[in-house]
Specification:
By secondary structure, the protein is α/β, with parallel strands linked by helices. It folds into 2 domains: about 50 residues, no CATH class; about 80 residues, Rossmann fold (3-Layer(aba) Sandwich), CATH 3.40.50. The protein has 5 helices and 6 strands.
Length: about 140
């Protein structure tokens, strides 16, 4: 519920035929974000565990997986939530320039990377600039 959400919403505005759903685990943070002025009416704020909520939310044309839940844990649920030809964006797939990941985190991110690039349900490409992004389309 931060810069990524604002970026997506600004790219969609002034459309009214879309719904942007964002999930925040921390109820206090979600309430602050939802009450902030300026959000268009097509933004839906949900509070809870994304892995518990995701199966009941339907399917999506675009999913931006930007947290451990849905990326390092529950990636299969995230992929299953894509409409045919839906796009999945997963960032932070490599350490940002000048940073070093601890080995455990690096191993989890590498598992996500391998899964996304080899999953037969997806056509994926890895962009290696910055912190690395994988763009994947559901077949």
């Amino acid at each position: 519920m931060g810069v990524g959400l604002a970026w997506l919403v600004s790219g969609l505005s002034p459309r009214t035929d879309v719904t942007v759903t964002t999930v925040e685990y921390d109820g206090e943070r979600a309430a602050r974000a939802a009450s902030a002025a300026g959000w268009p009416p097509f933004v839906r704020f949900l509070t809870g565990d994304a892995l518990e909520l995701l199966p009941g939310l339907g399917t999506f044309d675009l999913v931006f997986a930007d947290t451990v839940a849905g990326k390092q844990v529950g990636l299969d649920l995230t992929v299953a939530a894509l409409n045919p030809r839906g796009m999945l964006v997963v960032d932070d797939m490599r350490p940002a320039p000048g940073t070093v990941w601890d080995p455990e985190f690096a191993a989890r991110q590498e598992a996500v990377r391998r899964t996304l690039l080899t999953d037969e349900r997806l056509v994926a490409v890895e962009l290696t600039h910055g912190s690395g992004t994988i763009l994947a389309a559901a077949r």
